[in-house]
Every structure is written in structure tokens, then in C-alpha cells.
Amino acid sequence: MKDKTMLTDYQTILIVDDEPAARRKLESMLTKTCRYEQLIQACDGDDAVEKIRQYRPELVFMDIQMPGMNGLQAALLTREENYQLIMVTAFDNYAMDAFDTHAVDYLLKPVTLARLSQSLEKVAALHQRIPEAQLQLLADKIYGQQEEQQLAVRKGEATVIINASEVCYLEALSGYCRIVLTLKGQKNHNTDSVLSDAPLEFMHQQLDQEQFLRVHRKYAVNSEQIFAYYSVMRRMYLKIRDFPDVAIPVSRRNAPMIKGRWQTV
């Protein structure tokens, strides 16, 4: 008798993601949620286009944010092919309205088995491919609104992509850099911080210098997280919105800059 958890039979499924660990995880979950004859993988948008045209998969899991050609561009380039599409994304919920508005489903990273099952049920019920116009509207929705910088940080075999708005502050630690996440970032990445083997100077250069202020030789702070400053024994410290108990020291050289932009408490 067919397992109740096996939702749909597929001839060929394609997983597109630039992170090998993410591809392996999704493949493992698919073995528990559907049946298929062949599962293939692609590591970027160009590879995805080539394999979609070569193997003609019925179902494609497409990561949105990839180096080079992104997932939406790859989907638009293969619009002549007849496959069902599930987007995989680490974007915040602000973009999810676009998915809900159009007949394309999405999986928000980190993907869970329960959410994958729901997505397969939804896509199986559609019995249709995603119209080009809907993909274009989705691309306009996401890339028309999101131009913020990102940090790519190696974590084991994977690379963690962190939006600038998810970074609270950077801290130098003996040649390394600790990236402390905002409350939103902690929720999205399921961790309070990420350690990079690159020094603070390098990581700070990857960010907008107007938004991330180097307030001390050991700290660079997201200015959106600063709401006040105070002094103790003639030393200045910053108060952080998401973490009121954290005290970020400010060097004497940078004190005038802080005084000119924020109030004291």
C-alpha cells in the first residue's frame, strides 16, 4: 500500500542551490515526502538552465539568491519548459506577499519537513506551470525593493548569507570577527551570532560605511540599532535598540560623531 506521506509521483526532480549542504538536506526530505525516478542537482543559475533543458524535470526547487544568475532569472530563461516551480528563499517576510499573490509557492530557509509537505500538496493541486507574467512580477517585487548589502560568511561546509539589516554590530576577536545579529536576524538564522575567520576590518569594508560606523577599534555598529549614548567615568558607551543591556564602547576620537547624531541618556 502506498505510504500516506508520499504525496506525488515524479519522473524527474531538479534541486538548484549553490550550497551543497542545502541540496543534500532537501534531497533527504524529498525521499520522505514524494516518489521520483530521478533527482538531479544544479549549483547555480546557468547550471539550472542547462539541466532544465536537458532533463526536462517536472518539478524544480529553485534557490533565489545565488552568485551570478539568480533563481528568478533562470526560471524566466526556461519559461518555455513545462515544469512546476517551488522557490527556495532566505528573504524576509516582506517579500512573501508576492508569493501569496501569485501562483508560485516558496520554501523559507531553513526548510522543514512539514513545510515541504505543504508545498508539495499545493503545487500538486495546481496542475499548471507558473506563467511568465507572474514570475516577472515576482522578480520586480523582490529586486525592486531589496538592494541592501549582504555578507557571505563561511560556516562549516555552508556559506551563510546575512542581510545588512540583520547585523546588529561587528566585534573583533583575536583576528576573527563576531557578527552579532539583530533580533530579526537571530530568528531568521536560528543563532545569536556568526563567527567569521576574516578580521573586522575586512568585514566592515563589505558594508555601507554610512550605515555601519566604526566607533571603536574593536566594534562597528549598525547605526539603525543606536538609539542613545551615555558616559561612565568619562568613557562613552552606546545603547542598542535590540539589546539594551549591551554596552558598546566609543573611542574618544569618535565621540564627537556620536554626540552630533544621537541624544544622551
Automatic annotation (TrEMBL):
The protein's name: Response regulator transcription factor
Pfam families: LytTR (PF04397), Response_reg (PF00072)
PANTHER family, alphabetized: REGULATOR OF RPOS, RESPONSE REGULATOR RECEIVER
Entry keyword annotation includes Phosphoprotein: yes
Protein keywords: DNA-binding, Phosphoprotein, Two-component regulatory system
GO terms, biological process: regulation of DNA-templated transcription
Any one annotated GO CC term: cytosol
One Gene Ontology term of the molecular function aspect: phosphorelay response regulator activity
Modified residues (4-aspartylphosphate): D63
Membrane-spanning ranges: none
Residue ranges of every copy of the Response regulatory domain listed in the record: 12-124
